[in-house]
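Dear H.,

Thanks for agreeing to be a second pair of eyes. The structure we're designing against is below in token form, covering all 421 positions.
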């Protein structure tokens, strides 16, 4: 492949510096517009009610307004055509037999950094993947924001205990998993001889996913070090989560944030995504004061009823709390004069602005961390009045990948960068 297709690594400024990490926290179905805003700079920045959890980190964040994905805006499906492509800007296939989006920027980064850490990326979630149809399209689109390739979503892990074992190691479990995978792969290869050529590509995708899991099992628990810099964790103090899936949302989300921190601190991976809820989510937020038992999707599509708008704002606020918690944990990790937050890029976003209007002409986005001091934070950047070429979300992704050492001539529908310095 030509360098223009594969990208090139940027030279490291200081070989002994800690690496830059990227995490994306995504929540579905938009925000309550009246309460999602920011103005001013630095410690004087004023935040809307939904963003209040980030007040301690105003100097560490950038409020991004006006960015959007043009192909999502054009799509006939107001939901599934605007969700799986959040991190790619790609077109979502409308053919039921052709599941296709586009490789997302987190997986492009994972591919680039694959040799540097035992785990290329963590792909986490709170709700299970759904396989029903919505708008004539598979809800696989509504359950996945991370796509390894144009046709294959990354496998999303929702069990904290399994994530812990992947990071720390559980040798007996890995032996069991390996034996099951060997049997599945053998069965799949025998089936290959009996199916039509048109179905073999799908089977090949399935076998490739098995190979990915095999690699993860082989690498889990291994120690790797880059030259000079050493991870700050030697002994893991976090207890292994319970085997069962957490039964309350706050505990589940907090565990996933803790596991992202652990992964970054141990340098097991430098790329993570966490889908806080699926598109058209049936999650409820009765644990929040003043929020009654409506489904999340109903709160976001609230018909501009003031009482329901406030409940929706509180769910936005709860999702932003996860970003604030991640910031607090990473800020507490010293990395030789800088913190893990200084050396991170944390994106919190949704696939719509006003969920009630299915508004996709600009996206709610917060960016926290300094990316190894490559970003100037404490700012509000609004691109809403700029030309479309300057409003592409993929412009942002090109800039973030630059900070991670991956320079691509274009990504998705963009060949320009955002000026984040």
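And this is the sequence the design step returned. I haven't edited it by hand at all.
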């Amino acid at each position: 492949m030509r360098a223009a297709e594969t990208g090139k690594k940027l030279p490291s400024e200081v070989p002994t510096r800690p690496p830059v990490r990227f995490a994306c926290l995504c929540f579905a179905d938009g925000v309550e517009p009246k309460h999602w805003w920011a103005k001013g700079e630095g410690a004087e920045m004023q935040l809307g009610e939904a963003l209040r959890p980030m007040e301690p980190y105003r100097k560490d964040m950038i409020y991004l307004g006006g960015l959007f994905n043009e192909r999502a805006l054009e799509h006939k499906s107001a939901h599934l055509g605007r969700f799986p492509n959040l991190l790619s800007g790609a077109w979502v296939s409308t053919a039921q037999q052709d599941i296709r989006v586009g490789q997302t920027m987190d997986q492009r980064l994972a591919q680039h950094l694959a040799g540097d850490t035992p785990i290329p990326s963590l792909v986490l979630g709170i709700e299970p993947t759904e396989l029903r149809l919505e708008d004539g399209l598979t809800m696989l689109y509504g359950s996945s924001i991370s796509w390894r390739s144009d046709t294959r979503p990354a496998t999303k892990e929702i069990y904290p205990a399994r994530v812990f074992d992947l990071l720390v190691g559980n040798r007996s479990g890995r032996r069991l998993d390996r034996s099951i995978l060997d049997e599945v792969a053998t069965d799949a290869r025998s089936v290959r001889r009996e199916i039509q050529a048109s179905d073999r590509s799908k089977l090949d995708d399935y076998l490739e996913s098995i190979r990915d899991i095999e690699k993860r099992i082989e690498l889990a628990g291994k120690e790797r070090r880059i030259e000079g810099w050493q991870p700050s964790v030697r002994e893991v103090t976090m207890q292994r989560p319970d085997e069962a899936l957490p039964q309350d949302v706050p505990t589940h989300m907090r565990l996933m944030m803790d596991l992202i921190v652990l992964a970054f601190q141990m340098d097991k991976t430098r790329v993570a995504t966490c889908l806080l809820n699926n598109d058209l989510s049936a999650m409820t937020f009765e644990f929040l004061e003043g929020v009654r038992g409506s489904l999340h999707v109903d709160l976001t599509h609230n018909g501009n009823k003031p009482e329901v708008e406030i409940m929706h704002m509180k769910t936005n606020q709860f999702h932003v709390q996860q970003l604030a918690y991640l910031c607090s944990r990473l800020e507490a990790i010293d990395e030789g004069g800088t913190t893990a937050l200084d050396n991170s890029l944390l994106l919190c976003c949704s696939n719509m602005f006003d969920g009630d209007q299915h508004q996709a002409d600009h996206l709610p986005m917060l960016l926290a961390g300094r990316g190894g001091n490559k970003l100037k934070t404490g700012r509000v950047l609004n691109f809403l009045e700029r030309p479309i070429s300057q409003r592409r979300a993929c412009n942002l992704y090109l800039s973030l990948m630059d900070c991670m050492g991956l320079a691509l001539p274009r990504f998705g529908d963009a060949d320009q960068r955002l000026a984040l310095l």
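Two observations from my side: Residues 1-5, 11-15, 171-176 have pLDDT under 50 and may be disordered. The longest helix spans residues 306-331.

Warmly,
E.
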